[in-house]
Design a protein that fits this description.
Blueprint: H1 2-16, H2 40-48, E1 57-62, H3 65-78, E2 82-87, H4 94-108, E3 112-118, H5 126-133, E4 138-143, H6 153-158, H7 164-168, E5 175-178, E6 182-186, E7 201-204, E8 207-211, H8 213-226, E9 231-233, H9 234-237, H10 243-254, H11 274-280, E10 286-288, E11 290-294, H12 312-321, E12 326-330, H13 337-348, E13 355-361, H14 369-384, E14 388-392, E15 410-413, E16 417-420, E17 424-428, H15 434-439, E18 443-448, H16 450-462, E19 468-473, E20 480-485, E21 491-494, H17 502-511
Parallel strand pairs: 2-3, 3-4, 7-15, 12-13, 13-14
Antiparallel strand pairs: 1-8, 1-10, 2-5, 4-9, 5-6, 6-8, 11-18, 12-16, 14-19, 16-17, 17-18, 19-20, 20-21
């Protein structure tokens, strides 16, 4: 099969020709600004932390999409010196345009803006990013750009296949840092479906607002990516036009981006909006020690995996393996592999008080049927090993308003979080699958706080009790049953996978046998 693919690829390259990237011109490294104590955000950060305990950072969970988006906007509007922004995806939709417009407006006030975007999903967006970069004080870089720029997503992939290693290795990080004083990180990209604005499907996700020492560590991570060989200035790969024309084109595009993101007076955790707390001079934060887990940008260099030290996946699995009580995991794309199954058996089956709870997507809610097929291979064995499994139903989350108003849209899990022993919490961009382990770069926070851990457990267990199927073994122990609980607490049992959509099932059956697990 591999030889056949190589032959077909050679023929394709011969027919289409080879697009190529320009040589990357070395540039002096640029670092995060540190003289930020005199900024408004710097003063609020100081007032929100414990001055006698500089080792502690401050954290606020952002489980609701509207609150999380407005937190970014609030920070952007109050930044005075710098915005460092890093995303896997910024969609050219109303919400994405508003987000980029806020970055432009910050630059107009004299804020230095650095925007780093993975290039995989930027088809057709060169005028948007190049136009933003045309403003003084803004620099935009694309991470691991594809050689082919023109046309649709599919066409760009087709004409870049001669550099498949580059296509396959992506920057999956999500990070927003304002004045090196506050950061928002977690699972959300910048697009309508991550913030409850899509009429078709919306994601259940989780971000965290941070302040203190951990923000400076996150800034160091951003700097490593910004100055890496994989980061190309937008002007070196995209078509350039005169600066005034580029700005006019950008302004025309983003002028239409005016979604109504209405935030509740108090979120599901009882917190008032971040903007209100910033203006009051103090943000309500949970103080705790924390660590940053981050892959190096060299992980996305392609080819053989470089020796870059333990990955985010390595470090997170080590936390799971060291658990003595319980591990609660929320992961939309969960493929444990043999390595993960060994950890599961050790934590979940050897002692009764060492259990794992997994919240993931059902077939009807997943947006990645092939990944779901990879997960389904291990599902029965996980149940036999003592894992408690919940699968988010596409419409079941309408039974609860705890994590947002889904309306008639499909509910999908996208949060990447875990609580270990009711004390440690991981929140980041990492999925528990082969792509995150081998191909994508990831970043996350590990917070040492029983209070934060209990909140995460409550959000993703109790709050989703009526929004997910609970899986169990059949009476003979060889089959799976899905237990559904409605809003009134009534239960029904499915003995077949509860999905009425035939298309994901067809995709899964036809394509799954041909896709390597570490590509999912």
């Amino acid at each position: 099969m591999r030889r056949l693919l190589l032959v077909l690829l050679s023929i394709l390259v011969g027919i289409t020709g080879c697009a190529s990237l320009p040589s990357r011109v070395p540039a002096p490294p640029v670092r995060a600004l540190t003289n930020v104590a005199d900024t408004a955000l710097g003063r609020v950060a100081t007032a929100s932390l414990a001055p006698r305990e500089p080792s502690l950072s401050g954290f606020r969970l952002l489980p609701e999409g509207e609150t999380s988006f407005d937190a970014r906007i609030a920070l952007a509007r109050r930044a005075q010196k710098s915005l460092d922004v890093q995303y896997y995806l910024i969609q050219d939709d109303d919400l994405g345009r508003q987000f980029l417009r806020e970055l432009r407006d910050a630059a107009r006030r004299g804020v230095r803006v650095r925007l780093l975007v993975d290039d995989l999903y930027t088809a057709g967006e060169d005028p948007l990013f190049a136009g933003l970069a045309a403003y003084p004080g803004v620099e935009v870089r694309l991470f691991n750009p594809l050689p082919s720029r023109a046309g649709s997503f599919g066409r760009r992939i087709l004409f870049s296949l001669h550099e498949f290693g580059r296509i396959n290795h992506r920057m999956h990080n999500k990070l927003f840092i304002a004045d090196n004083s506050f950061a928002v990180s977690g699972g959300r990209n910048i697009a309508e479906e991550y913030f409850m604005r899509s009429p078709e499907a919306n994601f259940i996700d989780l971000d965290v607002l941070s302040s203190g020492r951990v923000v400076r560590e996150l800034s160091s991570v951003f700097d490593a990516y910004w100055n890496s060989e994989q980061a190309y200035p937008i002007g070196s790969v995209a078509e350039t036009v005169p600066l005034p024309e580029a700005r006019q084109r950008f302004d025309a595009i983003v002028a239409a981006g005016r979604p109504r993101v209405e935030e509740r007076p108090n979120d599901v955790l009882g917190q008032t909006p971040v903007a209100e707390q910033l203006d009051a001079g103090r943000v309500v934060l949970e103080l705790a020690p924390a660590r940053v887990f981050a892959d190096t940008p060299d992980k996305a260099a392609g080819g053989e995996r470089p020796e870059t030290g333990p990955t985010v996946t390595d470090q997170t699995l080590a936390l799971f393996a060291a658990a003595t009580r319980e591990v609660d995991i929320a992961s939309p794309y969960f493929i444990p592999g043999e390595r993960g199954m060994a950890m599961i058996r050790a934590v979940g089956a050897t002692e009764e008080n060492r259990r794992i709870t997994l919240v993931t997507n059902s077939l009807g809610s997943t947006d990645e049927p092939l990944v779901y097929a990879g997960y389904a291979r291990y599902r029965l064995d996980m149940l036999k090993a003592g894992v408690r499994i919940y699968e988010i139903g596409p419409s079941l989350s309408r039974n609860t308003q705890r994590l947002g108003n889904f309306g008639r849209s499909i509910s999908r899990l996208h949060a990447k979080a875990a609580a270990i022993d009711h004390r440690l919490v991981f929140i980041g961009s990492m999925n528990l699958d082969g792509r995150s382990e081998h191909s994508n770069t990831e970043v996350g926070l590990v917070i040492d706080s029983p209070a934060v851990a209990e909140t995460v457990i409550r959000l993703f267990r109790e709050s989703l009790a009526s929004g997910a199927y609970k899986l169990r073994l059949s009476a003979d122990g060889e089959h799976i049953e899905w237990v559904e609980t409605d809003a009134e607490g009534r239960q029904s049992v499915h003995t077949q996978e509860p999905s009425d959509d035939w298309l994901p099932r067809l995709k899964m059956r036809l394509l799954a046998p041909f896709v390597a697990e570490d590509l999912l």
